[in-house]
Structures are given as C-alpha cells and as structure tokens.
Amino acid sequence: GVFSFFSYRDPSPLETIETFARSIKWVTEEHDISEREMTEAKLSVFGDLDSPLSVSEEGMTYFTTGITDDMRQERRDQFFEVTANDLKDVAAKYLLPEASSRPTSVAVIGEESLAISGDWKHVRLQ
C-alpha cells in the first residue's frame, strides 16, 4: 500500500514537509488518541465504506472483484475493532522512517521560483 500526504499550491513546501513528519511523531509518540477521536475516524471510514450502492453497482462489484456482502461485512467488523493502540503500532511500524525498511520519497512539484535548496534533486519536466 501507499500512504501519502498532499499539499496544494503551498508557498512553503519545506515547512509543510516538516509538519507532515512531525504529525507522524505526534500520533505515534506524543498524543494519546481519545475514544472520541477514534469514533470520529471510524465514522469517516464507515461513511465511505457504507455509501449506498445501486443494484447495478452491487452486481458489478461482485462480478469484477468477487467481493461478496459477507466479505464487506467482515471488513467493516475488522475496522470497527481497531483500537488507538493498533493505530499507533501501525503508524510506528510503517510511517516512521527510522522504523520502516520500506523506501520513502518526497516530491515537490512547482515553479522554479520556490528555490528549494539543500540535498534535493531538481528535475525539469518538459
């Protein structure tokens, strides 16, 4: 899977990149995720999972993916069981650069006038 942060028309991309990095530290090491935050996050996920499907969409989903109603329900149940500690563990394992063996990358796309200096590779897209 891929986990991404995005920023659009950002006048300070390097500061934003630092903020993204601090947010991972914040959730894994500094913040105690409350039950309310977990409930709100789950409702957000469930809102996407449980959006109404037309009969044709249901049939097409089953036809193209083989995912049944029982399988979707099992996935919902698994999401519902996620705890704050589960979230912290997964974030620490996969999102902290020092803990993950997976490669990470950062890209800033914009005008040359952003003048990003330091250890960055500049590529001009034609």
Tell me what the structure shows.
The chain has 126 residues and is an all-alpha fold. It is built from five helices and no strands. The protein has helices at 13-30, 35-49, 55-65, 69-81, 84-94. Helix 1 packs across helix 5. The longest helix has 18 residues, at 13-30. The radius of gyration is 19 Å and the shape is extended. The two termini are 29 Å apart. The mean pLDDT is 84.
**Percent in helix:** 40-55%
Number of helices: 5
Beta-strand content bin: under 5%
Radius of gyration over alpha carbons? 19 Å
Q: What is the β-strand count?
A: 0
The assigned structural class equals: mainly alpha
Which word captures the global form?
extended
Main beta sheet, described?
none
How far apart the termini lie comes to 29 Å
List low-pLDDT spans. none
Mean pLDDT: 84
Could you state the order of secondary-structure elements as H and E? HHHHH
Characteristics of this structure?
126 residues; mainly alpha; 54% helix; 0% strand; extended
Brief summary:
With 126 residues, the protein is an all-alpha fold.
List the helices and strands and how they pair.
Blueprint: H1 13-30, H2 35-49, H3 55-65, H4 69-81, H5 84-94
Helix pairs in contact: 1-5
